[in-house]
Write a structure and sequence with these properties.
- The structure holds two protein chains of two kinds.
- By secondary structure, chain A is of the alpha+beta class.
- Chain A folds into two domains: about 160 residues, no CATH class; about 170 residues, no CATH class.
- Chain A has a six-stranded mixed beta barrel with strand order 2-3-8-5-7-6.
- In chain A, α1 packs across α11, α2 runs antiparallel to α12 and α9 runs parallel beside α12.
- The longest helix of chain B has 15 residues.
- In chain B, the strands form two sheets. Chain B has a six-stranded mixed beta sheet, with helices on both faces. A four-stranded antiparallel beta sheet of chain B has the order 2-1-4-5, covered by helices on one side.
- Chain B starts with 6 loop residues before the first helix and ends with a helix.
- By secondary structure, chain B is α/β, with parallel strands linked by helices.
- Chain B has a domain of about 180 residues: 3-Layer(aba) Sandwich (Rossmann fold).
- The chains are: A alpha+beta, B alpha/beta.
- The interface between A and B is medium-sized, with 27 and 31 residues.
């Protein structure tokens, strides 16, 4: 009878495709929106992920997320270094500084100052030049997105048309920048993870960053700490907190703290949550309506089967099989389309991260959709009087 | 569910014969429906005996209770009162599951609108009762094809219902009703959707192929042209059997008799 159920399902091609479309649409929307949401949330802590060497991030206790800059006194570095279990601790500067472009415009840059001696905290991937070039005078490393877009040299304006006389010329090694009236020379181009901040990222040494930055009493944003071999990072965080009064988090804790901040204080989860819920509801409605219509259209056939001796359990099994098939195909099409979406978007600016939990959760949601969609049909068929077949 | 008895064995004349030689024995059967708060009496004390090997027709105006009566006889509807035995089996003493199983093994149905599954081929449609009774798909389709041969459609086994004429569809429906060798075949207006000639072909088929001395055929019809095929005609009106005609060919026109 399973074959009969499948032939019944696939016999009406329009309805069959309609049901699959409903489930696929729901799967696609839920998977795609959830993946973009996770992608965006991953961007919030992109800088923490890029800075891979330290076990512990130390900061002002009032810091709520990675871009919440509350500088510390330089002396705090020595206090942290004095905590039991610390292998090394280095300063990190993070701040927004204005760069003057060659056409006279200004562009705010996210300047990262890393430890002069060890260069710990540098970019994760160098495309041109090397990290060690930061030891040269006035040197900076610029991220590739910034170098090719906001920091790119603008071509002269054609006086006749008022339009640029060509495309912008990307910043390259050897070019100069002016950061807060300080001369900086580009010695490398790097690639960094996209973050919520759209400004170009400029790496330099800690000392140089503090000279670029406006004069302030406190300039050190974070202390990056490595624990001794075998040291539990969480226990080390606790000791740093007790000894210094500063906040100390493992990289994972700091990333999660950042995600929580964005989830709590921005409308992002609500917006994406609504999209996901809409996908679920619309998918349920389309699939449910079409599946129910399909059952109504076949009601006489089900009645005939019932009259001929097919019990409720058997008919229920047939409907569940039909629901399972459309659920599986719809899910596959939807998640496949979401994966294709990721493939097509390639290295674009789209934040898309399909972690394994998303297809699993989508599978659960699709199961609920097909169960709900088939429930009405099951009730209808179970309550069906086989005598319906004698009605003309 | 027990496996269906092999067709050769289940069709062993005399092995299942009713003690009284009756396929159906109904005594004072009543059935009411409630609609809009009022009770409608569809059957008002029906007495009906159908013998083994008999072709009985139920005739009468619309709403007289014919369809309700065959629904009760086929175990699709429960009666309110009275006694109704089908091959000495009382549906009222069966559980829902037993009734379904009994129907699946003992009753074959031919419907007015054929009710063939549109997505299945002729052979697959005929195989459905066997599949319901647990026969494997390949074995069921094999038997179904043999059945198609018997109704003269051996070359249409792979045709879908929409590719068949009305008469061919009804022949497929008849083959489906007989494929599992049921002992009672219930037909609801089997010729109403067919032209005169095709109606006679279908009735000859029913009489010659479906009927033997261990079986019974009950046909609900309005079609006076086919009354002559019946052994007895039970005239119904207002939920009662008002007349039993033992020589129904007298009801047919001379042209139909000659046909």
């Amino acid at each position: 009878m399973n074959l009969v159920a499948l032939r019944m399902l696939m016999g009406d091609k329009a309805k069959y495709i309609g049901i699959i479309f409903g489930v696929a649409f729901a799967s696609l929307l839920m998977t795609q929106q959830a993946s973009i949401f996770v992608g965006l949330m991953t961007r919030t802590f992109g800088f923490v992920s890029d800075t891979g060497q330290p076990d512990v991030w130390v900061m002002d206790p009032k810091v709520q997320f990675i871009d919440d800059l509350k500088p510390l006194q330089d002396t705090m570095l020595y206090r942290v270094r004095g905590v039991e279990g610390v292998e090394w601790a280095v300063p990190l500067y993070k701040g927004l500084l204005r760069a003057r472009l060659d056409n006279g415009n200004f562009q705010t840059c996210n300047v990262i100052g890393i430890d002069d001696g060890t260069l710990i905290g540098g970019p994760p991937e160098m495309l041109e030049g090397s990290l060690a070039d930061l030891r040269r005078a006035d040197s900076v490393i610029v991220d590739v997105v910034g170098a090719t877009s906001r920091l790119a040299k603008q071509p002269p304006i054609d006086p006749a048309t008022g339009k640029p006389m060509g495309p912008p010329v990307p910043l390259k090694v050897g070019d100069f920048l002016e950061l807060n009236d300080n001369r900086a020379v580009v010695v490398g181009i790097c690639r960094v993870s996209r973050t919520f901040q759209s400004q170009p990222v400029v790496y330099t040494t800690y000392t140089r960053a503090t000279t670029f930055a406006p004069r302030e009493r406190r300039l050190m944003t974070f202390v990056l700490v490595k624990g001794r071999s075998g040291e539990d990072p969480k226990a080390l965080c606790e000791r740093i907190r007790e000894s210094t009064g500063l906040a100390a988090y493992t990289a994972d804790e700091f990333s999660w703290k950042t995600v929580v901040y964005f989830m709590k204080f921005t409308g992002i989860p609500i917006n994406f949550g609504i999209s996901v819920i809409l996908g679920f509801l619309v998918g349920t409605a389309i699939a449910g309506q079409t599946f129910y219509n399909f059952t109504l259209d076949n009601l006489k056939q089900f009645g005939a089967l019932k009259a001929m001796g097919a019990g409720n359990l058997r008919l229920l099994g047939m409907i569940m099989l039909q629901a399972l098939v459309v659920g599986l195909i719809g899910y596959g099409v939807g998640v496949g389309a979401a994966a294709g979406f990721k493939y097509l978007s390639g290295r674009s600016e789209l934040a898309f991260r399909m972690i394994w939990q998303i297809p699993v959760i989508t599978a659960g949601a699709v199961t609920i959709i097909v169960v709900l969609a088939s429930l009405l049909s099951i009730i209808k068929v179970i309550r069906l009087e086989p005598a319906i077949v004698f009605k003309g | 569910m027990p496996a269906l008895m092999p067709i050769e064995q289940s069709h062993n004349p005399g092995s299942h014969s009713s003690a009284r030689g009756l396929a159906i024995h109904c005594k004072n059967v009543t059935k009411s429906f409630s609609a809009g708060g009022t009770s409608i009496k569809a059957l008002r004390g029906i007495d009906l005996d159908v013998k083994l090997g008999e072709l009985a027709m139920l005739v009468g105006p619309s709403g007289c209770g014919k369809t309700t009566l065959i629904s009760v006889v086929a175990g699709i509807l429960d009666r309110d009162e009275g006694e109704c035995l089908v091959f000495d089996q009382d549906f009222s003493k069966m559980s829902g599951r037993q009734k379904t199983r009994f129907r699946g093994q003992t009753v074959g149905f031919v419907f007015q609108q054929f009710n063939l599954l549109p997505a299945l081929t002729a052979a697959q449609n005929i195989a459905v009762p066997l599949l319901i009774n647990g026969v494997s798909h390949s074995a069921a389709v094999k038997v179904a094809k043999e059945m198609l041969d018997r109704v003269g459609l051996g070359d249409r086994s792979e045709s879908l219902p929409r590719q068949l004429s009305g008469g061919q569809q009804q022949r497929v429906a008849i083959a489906r009703a007989m494929v599992h060798k049921p002992r009672l075949i219930v037909c609801d207006e089997p010729t109403s959707a067919l032209d005169h000639e095709t109606g006679h072909v279908v009735m000859r088929l029913l009489k010659n192929v479906a009927l033997d001395h261990d079986r019974a055929l009950v046909i609900v019809t309005h079609d006076a042209r086919i009354f002559g095929f019946a052994d007895r005609v039970f005239k119904m009106d207002d939920g009662r059997i008002v007349d039993v005609i033992a020589n129904p060919s007298s009801l047919m026109s001379p042209a139909d008799q000659q046909h």
